[in-house]
Specification:
This protein is mainly α and 485 residues long. The chain has 19 helices and twelve strands. A hairpin with a 3-residue loop joins strand 6 and strand 7. It is elongated, with a radius of gyration of 32 Å. The structure holds glutamic acid.
Amino acid sequence: MASSDGNGLGTQRPVITRFAPSPTGFLHIGNARTGLFSWLYARHLGGKALLRIEDTDKKRSTQEAIDVILDGLDWLGLEFDGETVFQSERADRHAEVAQKLLDAGKAYKCFATTEELSEMREQQRAAKQPIRYDGRWRDRDPVEAPEGAEFTIRIKTPEGGETIIEDAVQGRVKVDNREIDDFILLRADGTPTYMLAVVVDDMDMGCTHIIRGDDHLNNAFRQMQVIEAMQGVEDGWERPVYAHVPLIHGNDGAKLSKRHGALSTLAYRDMGYLPEAMKAYLLRLGWSHGDQEIFTEDEAIALFDIGGINKAPARLDLEKLGQINAHFIRLADDERLFSLLKPLLEAEAPLTEAETARIRAALPGMKDRGTTLPELAAAFAFLRDIRPIQMNKKARKSLSEEGLDRLVGLRDELQQLRQWTAETISHVISSYCADRDLSMGQVGQPLRAALTGGLPAPDIAPVLEWLGKDETLGRIEDQTALDRD
Ligand code: GLU
């Protein structure tokens, strides 16, 4: 249960990770990936994986936006432990921590007005200095403030030295404490800042490992100030292990943006990827274990470690996702696959009973016919075509006079077949070829043309079985009869 990663601090506690998405209207695949890493790491060590919705931005955090995240996680099959924490419900606790820091002399009231602060920044800009709060109320007595003046609560950060993080992915990273200004914990209206809320929640949730995007690395230096300031004030404020995961880039190496394709996890569901494929793909996107490319969930849980997270940004590669998806489609249970395909198959017209029977029969042998569900659904079209079926150019070519003659002969033989299975059919075709000294191709090509309109099918006998005897003979008849007209 105990962790062996990171900086050696707090490593004897049971592992607790958290995933803390903000409801922005969709679940970004980059976020889904860090969510997956956090979840896997906890599962790997038998710890807990917690979920916190960072819904403090009231304008964006609609119920709909929250549901989109929950649906995305649900689709991926990432079930988190315990109750979901909603950050907005914890504002009182955030304010309490700010007050405690104030009482302990580790934070102070800042009465600087908005105008004053923008003037300060203006001057810093003009003098080409870094823009940061200059600590003007750090040592001032609050009695100097005008009666009833509004104030913020700011943390008192160390004036010298450096803050070091032994990041489990990035290695040792440090910052000169002079670069960290006395940032705001509590706004004038009493609401907590994001910087305060995140760290209070992380500590209250007992998080031992913070696995998140490396765009939060700078925040970690600030969050650490709050942790350290609280250490003498309340118990339980132990430094977590930080693991800042490099972001995902597009295939051109640039930061992932809309032009690289879908950014939303659920968009991949809608494009016809299976959740287990998406999960296996996201896992490999920035994590590796030897040369293995595809991991089942159990393997991932058994093998996932922070040490396998790559330091360089991963590149989104839709071709690879397609390959992984094809792999999982082949593994998928027939019933499940059929129910996923059904809405796609019925987009234009409901399936008839006969079509359903044919598609169900064909499904086990057709699973390698698509890298996505819509592609696979399209591959079943020939089983639904209305006679006489449409031919493509190549098919028409193989239905030459010779080809049709062979079909006429074969049809007569098939007609007599009582037991209609791929095996018996295959036997009929082989002996028909052997008797006439024909190659399989010489018969198979016109047959395939007549039955599928030209669809590639490696094995023709099962196609006849799926179509059934009447439909098969009918389709052959359509071609041979048309020719005679
Ligand atoms: N809510 C933040 C986000 O969605 C993550 C905060 C964190 O992981 O600390 O980017």
